[in-house]
Specification:
The complex is a heterodimer of chains A (519) and B (258).
Chain A lengths: L8 H10 L32 E2 L5 E2 L1 E5 L26 H13 L5 E5 L6 H18 L5 E5 L6 H10 L2 E3 L7 H7 L5 H35 L2 H4 L39 H8 L32 E7 L6 H15 L3 E6 L18 H16 L4 H4 L13 H7 L7 E2 L5 H5 L6 H11 L6 H6 L4 H4 L3 E3 L2 E2 L7 H19 L10 H8 L2
Parallel strand pairs in A: 3-4, 4-5, 5-6, 6-7, 7-8, 9-10
Antiparallel strand pairs in A: 1-2, 10-11
Chain B lengths: L3 E6 L3 H13 L7 E5 L10 E5 L4 H15 L1 H12 L5 H15 L10 H23 L2 E3 L5 E5 L6 H11 L5 E5 L4 E5 L6 E4 L2 H8 L5 H12 L8 H7 L18
Parallel strand pairs in B: 1-2, 1-3, 5-6
Antiparallel strand pairs in B: 4-5, 6-7, 7-8
The chains are: A alpha/beta (519), B alpha/beta (258).
Bound molecules: iron/sulfur cluster.
Chain lengths: 519, 258
């Protein structure tokens, strides 16, 4: 491996951001953290994109590798040891300076730090921790930090990073253990899921501790004279979370029953891992670290991964079906309590007989459909097995997953606008969280007609096929799946062009913002 | 035929509020009056009576108090943001909403199928979206003495909505945000509260000349290399980041010598 010496900061930046570009991240569904005098930075829960790259994907973080001098040889990766590329490593100081100076100019929301394996997982993780430590403690940076946990690193190091970062992620890399064995021999499901479980337990422990603190504080405040209340040392911890991080827009409990844990497709080793890794491992939040002076610093009181954990899978490098991928996704949400699962359409960059040939276009439509389905799992109360079945293991390329589901369920539709409950409204194609809420609000005050719905800003282009107002349909029609499919697919083509086959975290977060923060 | 009376308001918070006050005090009734902003070039209609409204601080504060107390704090927030919008009809739109607002109180904002309520929320959303865009796309440049300087050219008057975000985020910085179109500037001295000021365009060049900010180039490098060429999609890029917001972003600057 050729380690290039004497590169300028600009050359290093070009190499190490190019090497990190396939990773997906997004700062929304994060946390609100106000600024503080003597520090730099705050964070915003709705997510702030700062720019959009030529591929249309959002740029919100300084997304870089600490090093691309990786000792592993994952077949799909551009940084694998067997590739002949220029190798370099940032110093912690360089990363901090870039982050702060970019942040001051409002180029970024914070740092996304990933890395190749520098000599060993521990050495890599240690160096990452050191960097975050300097950024938080010496530069007093309060902006957003997303950091990768390095599989195989000691739990103490992972715990340390968790106290410094807002979000952590460990890439699942490939949807199944078979894929991993074939393409990433140095990694295993266990090596990936163990730290994932550790972080999950740490987050859970941290949240209940935070709730206790809040209760305690509430009790104290009740007896304090009003004049003293504001003087309570709320600001002494450098990170506080104003809104409870585990409130999801729609709690899973309200949706259709989530008791069905054994999905028809075995999510492979996700389930096996439950046996290997005890769900109640000692909480890493309590574990100090020999490397960083954890106690006696701000860190001792800081939150643990307050913006939650995410992961990422590569789509299209291995032969899994959409159904398998979605089942794994669901298992990750259910069992590991992940905040986000990201999908990365495989870009064929390596010449390798086990992989799609160089130049194979990345499967963007497939990635898009997976993100749509992911959205349905997280916010619309759908279960994976409702969306894809053994007979239909792949998404319809012409229709979005919600439409495809709806036309397979003529027994449910059309639904009546004045009486359908929230969860039924959410299942109507063309109605989102925002429209469904608007309907609930508006119908309290008046009897709604289709005209009124339009005035409320509800778009009837698609929803019109599935709704009735006082028993009449928007368009007189028979509920014929074949006819509907053709009609809806025609509309979808136009939408898809507009979306250009790319949504989810690459799409604008404004839609999320619109969806959940207004009326 | 009844004659329509048009209240010509000055384009400012006080101007619009005074117009709202005078219109309602006139007891003409909503069918026979309209509020317009005085642009100096209004199309005069033949059969209308025009009344020019003089901004009046006392009437303004009465209107504000009435909205906050008789409708709600939230309604005042919506109305305030609507006043900042660039929509020509905003004064009249707010007047129409207040008819519903004073009638139904706080719950008026839930009457989504009422066109006046719908319009108010639309104005609020336009302004809210634009201010969110500038929180994202505004770019500071480091000038003399490490002062951060940003230029924006918003359609709505969002400077007062955008600045608090940066004041919270960058408490230790001396920064200046200039609304190029309006000539207003928000000034934030290090560790102090920010204030509004004005800045003449000819002074801008002085501020910018003779400084080289190396991080601009580093940022451009990053912007280039973080894109995946195989996924190139300029249409998506444009819909996510409309051209209007790129004017002062270094990454979209043509490589010419400044
Ligand atoms: S560990 Fe594998 S995926 Fe990560 S940088 Fe090294 S080769 Fe690439």
């Amino acid at each position: 491996m050729l380690i290039q010496e004497g590169l300028t900061l600009e050359q290093k930046l070009a190499i190490l951001s190019d090497a990190a570009k396939y990773d997906v991240a997004c700062t929304s569904s994060g946390i609100d953290r106000r600024g503080q005098s003597g520090s730099i930075g705050n964070t915003s829960a709705c997510g702030i994109c700062h720019c959009f790259a030529a591929d249309g994907r959002c740029i919100s973080l300084l997304k870089i590798l600490m090093t691309n001098a990786c000792i592993y040889d994952c077949r799909y990766c551009i940084n694998r040891v067997s590739n002949d590329t220029v190798r370099t490593t940032f110093t912690p100081e360089e990363i901090c300076r870039l982050t702060i100076e970019f942040y001051r100019r409002n180029y970024i929301e914070g740092l996304f730090l990933s890395s190749g394996i520098l000599n060993s997982p521990n050495e890599t993780m240690e160096q990452i921790c050191r960097t975050l430590w300097i950024l938080r403690e010496e530069y007093h940076f309060r902006g957003y930090i997303h950091v990768k946990a390095i599989p195989g690193a000691d739990p103490e190091l992972i715990a340390c990073a968790g106290h410094l970062a807002d979000r952590m992620s460990i890439n699942l890399e490939l949807p199944t253990g078979d894929g991993l064995r074939a393409l990433a021999p140095a990694k295993s499901r266990k090596k990936i899921l163990t730290p994932m479980r550790q972080i999950q337990n740490g987050i859970t422990a941290d949240r209940s501790a935070a709730r206790e603190r809040k209760k305690l504080k509430g009790a104290q405040q009740a007896v304090l004279p009003a004049a003293l209340r504001d003087a309570s040392p709320a600001g002494s911890v450098y990170r506080t979370v104003s809104s409870d991080p585990d409130t999801k827009p729609i709690s899973a409990a309200n949706g259709p029953s989530r008791k069905c844990l054994s999905s028809p497709v075995s999510p492979g080793e996700i389930a096996d891992a439950e046996e290997v890794i005890p769900p109640r491992a000692p909480a890493p939040a309590d574990v100090g670290s020999g490397i960083m002076p954890l106690s006696g610093s701000h860190l001792a009181g800081s939150r643990f991964v307050p913006a939650g954990q995410s992961t990422q899978m590569i789509i299209g490098a291995t032969p899994e079906t959409d159904r398998q991928i979605l089942a794994v996704t669901e298992a990750l949400y259910d069992r590991f309590d992940l905040k986000r699962v990201f999908f990365s359409a495989y870009t064929a960059i390596n010449d390798d007989s086990r992989l799609p040939a160089i130049g194979t276009p990345p499967p963007l439509l497939r990635e898009h459909r997976l993100y749509q389905a992911d959205w349905l799992l997280r916010f619309y109360g759908f279960r994976a097995e409702e969306l894809l079945t053994e007979d239909h293991p792949f998404f319809n390329t012409a229709l979005d997953p919600k439409c495809s589901w709806a036309i397979r369920h003529p027994e449910i539709f059309p639904v009546e606008i004045m009486s359908a409950d929230y969860h039924t409204l959410l299942r109507v194609p063309g109605l989102g969280v925002r429209s469904a809420r608007r309907i609930l609000t508006a119908r309290r005050y008046q009897h709604l007609t289709f005209e009124d719905l339009k005035k409320c800003g509800v778009v009837l282009k698609r929803a019109g096929y599935f709704l009735t107002c006082s028993g009449t349909m928007y368009r007189p029609l028979r509920f014929d799946p074949a006819y509907l499919e053709a009609e809806l697919a025609a509309g979808e083509r136009a939408d898809c062009r507009a979306l250009s086959e790319s949504a989810g975290p690459t799409g604008r977060q404004m839609s999320l913002f619109d969806d959940f923060h207004l009326s | 035929m009844d004659q329509t009376t048009i209240f010509l308001c000055e384009d400012s918070i006080a101007g619009i509020c005074t117009g709202l006050y005078d219109a309602s005090a006139s007891r003409l009734g909503y069918r026979r009056l309209r509020l317009e902003l005085n642009t100096g070039a209004n199309d005069m209609e033949l059969f209308c009576r025009y009344i020019t409204v003089d901004p009046d601080p006392e009437k303004t504060s009465k209107v504000v108090r009435a909205i906050r107390q008789k409708i709600s704090e939230q309604a005042w927030e919506y109305v305030y943001r609507a006043m900042l919008s660039a929509e020509a009809t905003r004064a009249d739109d707010i007047y129409r909403y207040l008819l519903t607002g004073f009638r139904f109180g706080a719950s008026s904002l839930n009457r989504l199928a009422d066109p006046a309520v719908h319009r108010l929320l639309e104005l609020d959303r336009l302004v809210g979206n634009e201010s969110h865009y500038f929180k994202e796309f505004l770019r500071f440049e480091s000038i003399e003495n490490d002062v951060l300087f940003a230029r924006i050219r918003p359609k709505a008057d969002v400077l007062t909505l955008v600045t608090p975000h940066f004041a919270d985020r960058l408490p230790g910085e001396n920064f200046l945000i200039l609304d190029v179109g309006r000539g207003t500037a928000a000034v934030h001295p290090q560790n102090e509260t920010w204030f509004l000021s004005s800045l003449a365009p000819e002074n801008v060049n002085d501020l910018l000349s003779g400084h080289f900010d190396e991080y601009r180039d580093l940022w451009k490098t990053f912007y280039q290399s973080t894109a995946i060429q195989e996924r190139r999609n300029y249409e998506l890029q444009r819909s996510n980041m409309p051209l209007h917001y790129r004017e002062f972003a270094p990454e979209f600057e043509k490589d010419v010598l400044r």
